[in-house]
Amino acid sequence: MQYAHITGWGKSVPPATLTNEDLATFMETTDEWIKTRTGISKRNISHVNTSEMASVAAKHALAAAGIDGCELDLIILATASPDTLIPNIASKVQADIGATCGAFDINAACSGFLYGVGLASSMIKSGQSKKILIIGAERLSFYLDWSRRETAVLFGDGAGAVVLEASNQPGGVLGYEINNDPEGRDILKSDFGSKMDRLDTDSLDFYIHINGQDVFKRAIHGMGSLSNTVLEKCGMSIDDVDFVIPHQANERIIDTLISRMKIPKEKAFVNIADYGNTSAATIPIAICDALSQGKIVPGQTILSCAFGAGLTSAAVLFKWGERITPISVSDANLPPCDKTALELIKPAVDYFFNKANNPK
Ligand code: UT7
């Protein structure tokens, strides 16, 4: 019997930080509103493409697992903000790390990383693969209309990755559930506008729209019900869970979810204050931070759940192995950035405010 264990982990967060106070310099918002309604204090704005962040996170995860890229059987990259649609950006990471295996992107929005972990665990348990790299990487700042305060304050950029490896040691991914609620397709989206005419640039509507309250309610329901299903399937109850790593979209969503599931608050990991919502990257970044803060300990049973556009949801239950320290460390890093976050976003801020103030 093969088990699928997380043996490596890594993250890459761009250096430019955009604080709530920075946002308040060009839109009608306050640090207090953002903090109390979302839990976010700051987020990172990338000066590079999604694939560059993904490659750096991947190199750290490979080093932590003590393996080379050429040993991988598969690369799964979860993103809703690839730098190229064709080819996929998993292939760019593959080139950067010297892997010779299958590589594909998945778009399940914020749930994408857990979709990837679930699929990878099935492939390992079936004997199809032995070592799989799963990455969550996003540059959602690229999609934001900075004149829309209801969405612009929520998101940030970053990447995280894990290596999942076959082992005879019981544990690892115990079970997973994935789902999609198509009735929620329109309440969280970024599309090409009603005309779908790429030559009519005025009709393009290429930014994130959210019906926040509707997503809020469905997110709690979706994550809660899948979490319960996966626990039931694994013959466990919530009392068996030592630690919860939820998707970081809004601290109030996390609070409501864990209180409904009767999980003590101290069991839930929350790092949204520092990053905002990095979509598919929130959970692998959280795994890295929880490990470096000593919150993950050997043998712990961990529940992770997410929701995102689609409306997708996913829940994965896993038992951490023995090792909580990296086998090796990579010196991979993003290229330096000589601009502040405000300077990086200024052209887009000017464009969107000009558009909002001068409707056609
Ligand atoms: O991971 C998946 C993607 N994430 C999501 O889809 C997010 C899910 N939803 C949420 O996190 C929350 O619904 C939001 C944070 C988006 C909004 O929080 P809310 O408590 O649902 O606020 P609301 O939409 O009911 O807005 C309350 C007020 C409104 O003003 P009025 O109508 O009461 O006068 C908004 O215009 O807050 C106003 N508002 C803001 N005020 C200051 C909205 N955005 C802002 C802002 N700063 N940035």
TrEMBL record:
Keywords: Acyltransferase, Cytoplasm, Fatty acid biosynthesis, Fatty acid metabolism, Lipid biosynthesis, Lipid metabolism, Multifunctional enzyme, Transferase. Its EC number is 2.3.1.180. GO terms for molecular function: 3-oxoacyl-[acyl-carrier-protein] synthase activity; beta-ketoacyl-acyl-carrier-protein synthase III activity. Residues 231-320 form the Beta-ketoacyl-[acyl-carrier-protein] synthase III C-terminal domain. It catalyses: malonyl-[ACP] + acetyl-CoA + H(+) = 3-oxobutanoyl-[ACP] + CO2 + CoA. Residues 104-181 form the Beta-ketoacyl-[acyl-carrier-protein] synthase III N-terminal domain. Coiled coil: none annotated. Pathway: Lipid metabolism; fatty acid biosynthesis. Homodimer. NCBIfam families: fabH (TIGR00747), PRK09352.1 (NF006829). Belongs to the thiolase-like superfamily. FabH family. HAMAP family: FabH (MF_01815). This is Beta-ketoacyl-[acyl-carrier-protein] synthase III. The gene is fabH.
